[in-house]
């Protein structure tokens, strides 16, 4: 056992005998730790031999709130003897005087704690703890599954992103190759056409060059007839050459054919309009987790608000005083009005009456009389009392301040088999 785990004997520490005497037991009534020697004396003492003790190891396993709960009031150093149901706390006699004078429901603490360990609340709360633990386990398992699902979703999303990127790359490579092939075809066709024309022009130019290179010899050594024939031929050759060049120009053979590339506008807009491959969203939906619902107001189960039948001790709170000479046969109903006054329904053989009494039990007046046998009465609202006449299936509403019947209602009784 480490020094931090060791519990010191309360008596030895308080008496200054030893500050490191290791405690082995805890006395639930003395509320203190005892070492081996102190426990021996504790068991022999007449005042404490019947005290219940538990091992210090067991005590340390109790929840902190239980370890901190003492049987004495911290403020007044008196033993708790009472319990305030309104504040849900134990009280000493001085606490009631200081803090609970206006509290209506003060009970003996012994009544609250009687058979507490064997009460149904213990089993219910143990079940509640089990259910809550199960709910936490279910929730933790659910959350771990959600985390695994999220990881799987991330992997699939990354694969989708890479797939679309690869697809775009493959598509661009394909149309690039097609366009380069088209460029090569058109360039080859244009190049072939210009090469043929170039060969023709070079041939024509060579012919003209031959005439031009021999022109000086022709003028020096040719006879006049030869010169005449030669000039006619030169005139013909130059005329045909001019016509050939003119035909080339007019036939658009010498037009400037330029290779140009036009990129599809939708493809060009990618660089301008497309800012991302897509977007990543977190879409929320209602949780599929199903947990057990806890009981409401569980703490109230520990405090028994309804007394047992043997604990009920009725006392007379008010006596209604009937004036002398007033004939009262059978009281079928007694109503306590919101202001504390009383209404009595007195039923005779052939008629009934409503009688009003003050909140101190003194007779005030007769409110109303009714022909027929009345069965019951109840307060409705404001100054209205309802009187039931069972034999005639009627309800009469009476204003007790105006002393008059305000309404009569008929009803039917249906028997469902």
From TrEMBL:
The keyword Metal-binding applies. Residues 4-56 form the B box-type domain. GO terms for cellular component: nucleoplasm. Keywords: Metal-binding, Zinc, Zinc-finger. It comes from the Eukaryota. The keyword Protease does not apply. Transmembrane segments: none annotated. Coiled coil: none annotated. Signal peptide: none annotated. One of its GO terms (molecular function) is ubiquitin protein ligase activity. One of its GO terms (biological process) is innate immune response. This is B box-type domain-containing protein.
């Amino acid at each position: 056992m480490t020094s931090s785990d060791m519990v010191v004997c309360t008596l030895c520490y308080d008496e200054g005998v030893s500050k490191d005497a290791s405690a082995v037991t805890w006395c639930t009534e003395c509320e203190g730790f005892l070492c081996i020697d102190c426990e021996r004396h504790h068991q022999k003492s007449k005042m404490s031999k019947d005290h219940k003790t538990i091992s210090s190891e067991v005590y340390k396993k109790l929840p902190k709130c239980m370890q901190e709960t003492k049987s004495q009031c911290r403020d007044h150093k008196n033993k708790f003897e009472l319990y305030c149901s309104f504040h849900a706390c134990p009280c000493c006699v001085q606490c009631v005087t200081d803090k609970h004078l206006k509290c209506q429901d003060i009970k003996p603490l012994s009544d609250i704690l009687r058979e507490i360990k064997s009460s149904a609340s213990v089993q219910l709360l143990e079940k509640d703890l089990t259910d809550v633990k199960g709910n936490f386990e279910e929730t933790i398992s659910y959350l771990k599954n959600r985390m695994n699902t999220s990881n799987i979703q991330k992997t699939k999303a990354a694969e989708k992103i890479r797939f679309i990127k690869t697809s775009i790359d493959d598509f661009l490579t394909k149309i690039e190759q097609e366009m380069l092939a088209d460029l090569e075809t058109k360039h080859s066709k244009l190049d072939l056409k210009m090469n043929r024309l170039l060969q023709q022009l070079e041939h024509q130019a060579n012919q003209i060059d031959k005439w031009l290179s021999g022109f000086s010899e022709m003028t020096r050594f040719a006879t006049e007839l030869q010169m005449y024939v030669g000039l006619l031929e030169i005139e013909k050759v130059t005329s045909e050459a001019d016509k050939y060049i003119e035909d080339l120009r007019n036939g658009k053979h010498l037009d400037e054919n330029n290779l140009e590339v036009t990129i599809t506008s939708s493809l060009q807009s990618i660089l301008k309009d497309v800012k991302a491959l897509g977007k990543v969203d977190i879409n929320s939906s209602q949780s599929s987790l199903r947990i057990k619902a806890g009981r409401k107001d569980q703490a109230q189960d520990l405090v028994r608000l309804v007394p047992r039948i043997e604990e009920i001790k009725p006392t007379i709170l008010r006596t209604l005083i009937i004036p002398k000479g007033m004939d009262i046969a059978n009281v079928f109903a007694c109503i306590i009005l919101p202001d504390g006054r009383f209404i009595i329904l007195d039923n005779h053989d052939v008629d009934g009456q409503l009688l009003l009494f003050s909140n101190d039990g003194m007779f005030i007046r007769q409110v109303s009389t009714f022909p027929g046998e009345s069965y019951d009465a109840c307060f409705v609202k404001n100054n209205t009392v309802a009187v039931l006449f069972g034999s005639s299936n009627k309800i009469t509403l009476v204003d007790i301040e105006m002393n008059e019947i305000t309404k009569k209602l008929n009803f039917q009784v249906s028997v469902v088999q």
